[in-house]
Amino acid sequence: PEQAQSNPQKTQSISLLYSYGDTFDPYTASTDANRQLASLLYDSLTKTDNNFVAECVLALSAQTKDRVCTVKLRDAVFTDGSAVTSQDVIYSYNLAKNCPLYSYNFYEVTSVSAPDSKTVVFNLSQNDEYFINLLDFPIIKNASAGKKDADGKEVAPIGCGRYYLAEDGLSLKLNESYYGKKGAIKSINLINSPDAASTSHYVEVGATQIYYTDGDSIVRMSGKKTEVNLNRLVYIGINSGLGSLQTKQMRYAISSALDREAICQSAYYNNATSATGFFNPSFEPTKAVQTIENKPSLKITVENLAKIGYNNLNSNGYYANASGNNPAFRLLVNSENSSRVAAAKLIAAQCKSAGIQLEVEECTFAQYTERLASGNFQLYLGETQILDNMYFTNLVLPGGSVAYGVGLEPDDNANTAEPQTDEPQDTDTAPKTDTCEAILTSYKNGACGISDVAATLLTEMPQIPVCYRSGVLF
After folding, report:
1. Which of 290, 314, 355, 408 fits as disulfide partner to 320, beta carbons 3.0 to 4.6 Å?
2. What is the pLDDT of residue 77?
3. Using CA atoms, how far apart are residues 154 and 152, in angstroms rounded to an integer?
4. CA distance 85 to 75
């Protein structure tokens, strides 16, 4: 709605899509449309801007020090006129930590308390200077969730956002008691759109003035287009126990062979940004130390291949060792994700142009996840959501939820399609997960800064960052 408020003389109401069969409870809603609308009904303590900088919303202030985050609440009231208090925040927190959409935000929270009606204290298991970035869970009134009307339909919980759901459930009305800027839109008419086909139809005929997609499925809409930075990293996962993939040099060689700009344009229709390192390129604190280029560098690829014994270009156009053997890799990809398949094929072609043999292996999502879990792969193309506090443990340390292949023991008998003869000339066995673990431990103990983490992860490169996807607001 903020996008539509630029001309208040013309805009008094707009129409948006929703699902009648779904709830507006932000913790139980199942459709993207209703979840998005819930952000108009329920404010959070903080929110991050497009560069992942936290801004206070319901919080008057939020500060983290010595594993304790203290939040002071501003004076605000719910739509029923009652004051927003710390007990409402704790009630909402308990709902959020059991909701799959928000539960990951609280992995380091050990307890939450309310010293007074306007103060909430989060005790943490480790130092986290960006914990306040995670306080974006919706605040609803204590004990207002789960209620039903006379017809048995779930009633929206009581919120304190800019709008509230009208009694007939067919529109959102401006909350006149809202503590912040209200804007010019007085009413939001709701159009029932129960499935993807109806959404596509309503967007194309102009029935809705605003449409957002996270990029998984894009319906074209005339009007202004705004990119929304998402913290979703697309990366090449490495089985670190196989052949030359144990070396930094091979991982550097593959990374420098990539034309990340072309991948963003062709596979993701420009709804992605080239990765300059592990951290989102829009995140200011790590920009200076992230040096991956968005275009390929054959010079860097050739130099790194030479360091591990692949000096000669064979008749097939691949760099080989003194015996004429070249490494040959297979890149596993989920066949059910068309954008990722397109990206994988581009990566294979780009590696071939740089003298590295790489073939794409497509399989169903069920097969893909089973093979990742069992370690039955060489390379895979994956995507993961990075939490907004920018902590990478789950991706780069052994045992992490998506750290497939990281820290696996060398397996010289594995079928890697790669020669095991001719010792590399300048090996640097890796990825040194102990180095990554050490820097992350130092960071969480407050002994180093986040830029040190970014530099170390880039040097060790336990996985290969490709790009960060973005959402689109029309």
Report:
1. 314
2. 97
3. 6
4. 9
Phi first, then psi, for residue 340 (nearest 5°) are: -70, -35
Residue 8's pLDDT band (cuts 50, 70, 90): very low
Backbone φ, ψ for residue 377 (5° rounding): -165, 165
Check if the beta carbon of residue 271 is closer than 8 Å to that of residue 471. yes
Is pLDDT of 447 > 50? Answer: yes
HSE-CB at 265 with a 13 A cutoff on CA atoms is 6
Distance CA 137, CA 100 (A): 12
What pLDDT, on the 0 to 100 scale, is given for residue 89?
A: 98
Instruction: Place 224 in a pLDDT band, splitting at 50, 70 and 90.
Output: confident
Residue range 99-108, pLDDT digits in tens: 999 999 999 9
- Positive or negative, the CA dihedral 368, 369, 370, 371 is positive
Q: How would you class 266 by CB atoms within 10 Å of its CB: exposed for 0-12, middle for 13-18, buried for 19 or more?
A: middle
Question: From the CB of residue 160, how many other CB atoms can be counted at a distance below 10 Å?
Answer: 26
Q: Which helix (H) or strand (E) holds 460?
A: helix 450-460
pTM: 0.90
Per DSSP, the residues of 136-197 read: -PBP--TT-TT-B-TTSPBPPPP--SSEEE-TTSSEEEE-TT-SS---S--EEEEEE--SHH
The residue written with tokens 């129960």 in the block is: 194
Question: Can you read off the two tokens belonging to residue 154?
Answer: 């779930």
Helix or strand (DSSP H, E) at 248: helix 248-256
- Pair 25, 41: CB distance under 8 Å: no
Peptide bond into 462 cis (omega under 30): no
pLDDT, the chain, mean: 91
Q: What is the mean pLDDT of residues 254-282?
A: 96
Cα–Cα–Cα angle for 147, 153, 154, rounded to 5 degrees:
35
User: Which two structure tokens, joined as six digits, stand for 204?
Assistant: 């194309």
